[in-house]
Amino acid sequence: MTATDASTQAEIPPARPTRPPDGTAPTGTDPSPFVSFTSADRFATVGEIYEEARRALPPQVWDFLDGGSGGEQTLRANLSSFERWSVLPRLMTGAGEPDLACAFLGIELSMPVLTSPFGADRLLHRDGQLAVARANAKAGVASIVPEAGSYSWEEVATAAPGAARMAQLHPMGNPANFAAMLRRAAAAGFSALCLTLDCPTAGWRERNMRNRFDVAVDVVSGNYPHAGPADLADTLGQLFVRREPIWTWDELAGRMADSPLPWMAKGILTGSDAEAAVLAGAAAVLVSNHGGRQLDTVPAALDQLPEVVAAVGGRVPIALDSGIRRGSDVVKALALGADVVVIGRAAAMALAAGGEEGVGRLHELLREEISTTIKLLGASGVDELTDTMIRPSAVSRW
Ligand SMILES: Cc1cc2nc3c(=O)[nH]c(=O)nc-3n(C[C@H](O)[C@H](O)[C@H](O)COP(=O)(O)O)c2cc1C
């Protein structure tokens, strides 16, 4: 029974204070005993955060953020994949208030969510990843801080040491710079690394082409403030120059052998690459298609999750990104075997819509929806979510 159903039953004494007949929030000091769907907050839903981000950003920056690569088949698949799975509740389970806390690579989280390493962050809000990390620290969420960000790893770590726990790096470019960056991340206080493996060159971004839009070097060079374009080609390598060969798993394993920090392999979509990543020494894998921004027409990350879970066989923890837009998406990813999710555009949109406050509000909405979904499923926490609670939607079996 929903709060609204309850309030219409004649035999139940009216709540104190009663909701005015026009449906607006009660004004008395007595709190309503019902779940309230009215909020004094500027953003009542994640959808409103998106609408505000669209209003706030210049159209070409909106396209850069919202868009994908090629014909955007993968971008669309990421979103529709969540609707191809249905959850199955268990009734009368005796479950208590859902416990959302967990740990990932030794990082304590108040809910199973990290924010993604999205670079060029100052295009979205002047405080970029500083604001994201501050909001994350307040919410008990961790940041994956990008190499190609507008602020340096150190600046973000200083702004919010409790949240800036993973540093993201592209395994490409000059190996000496790569080795120096591994040491630099450890010195800045990060506890793990995220290596982006699916980005040996930038994706085919048609919205940017149509808009004649290039990201300015200064918004991606927070970690390399003194580097000119030629030096950046050495560090962010093929993102800019597109000439170097892609590193091999063996080269990666060799260059990570002395890493002071454990690392997560970002961009895994197949069981065989998950296996290769684990053999190369990855301490976690992130099932991801880069939010549909790299190779277009690859499958939705969620649809590849069961294959990766089977290949990994519990040897390392698994994260998932690409398409998470609401709390029930998080629950579905966990039920299919992810340990945590990583949110990209949702966090970036919240940053654009309202800076630190916007990201904080997004976390509140995610947390509440995750909690509500878990409770309605009859579970008592994220640990209890399993594949017995999810199955392909009827429509996807036709
Ligand atoms: C504006 C923007 C910039 C990004 N920059 C990076 C980056 O520098 N490095 C990286 O590994 N991923 C980058 N990503 C990809 C995200 O880390 C993440 O994989 C993706 O956004 C997840 O999908 P979602 O947006 O559907 O949540 C970027 C994503 C966006 C939207």
UniProtKB/TrEMBL annotation:
Q: What GO MF annotations does this protein's record show?
A: (S)-2-hydroxy-acid oxidase activity; FMN binding
Q: Which cofactor does it need?
A: FMN
Region (Disordered) location: 1-34
Q: Where does glyoxylate bind?
A: R205, H290, R293
Compositionally biased residues, Low complexity: 21-31
Domain named FMN hydroxy acid dehydrogenase is located at: 38-395
- Give the residues the record marks as binding FMN: P117, F118, G119, Q168, T196, K266, S288, D321, S322, G323, I324, R325, G344, R345
Alphabetical list of Gene3D superfamilies matching this protein: Aldolase class I
Q: Which Pfam families match?
A: FMN_dh
Keyword rRNA-binding carried by entry: no
Q: Where is the composition biased (Polar residues)?
A: 1-10
Query: Which keywords are on file for this protein?
Result: Flavoprotein, FMN, Oxidoreductase
InterPro entries for this protein: Aldolase_TIM, Alpha-hydoxy_acid_DH_FMN, FMN-dep_DH, FMN_HAD, FMN_hydac_DH_AS
- The active site annotation covers H290
EC numbers, comma separated: 1.1.3.15
User: What general EC class does the enzyme of this chain belong to?
Assistant: oxidoreductase
Family note: Belongs to the FMN-dependent alpha-hydroxy acid dehydrogenase family.
Record protein name field: (S)-2-hydroxy-acid oxidase
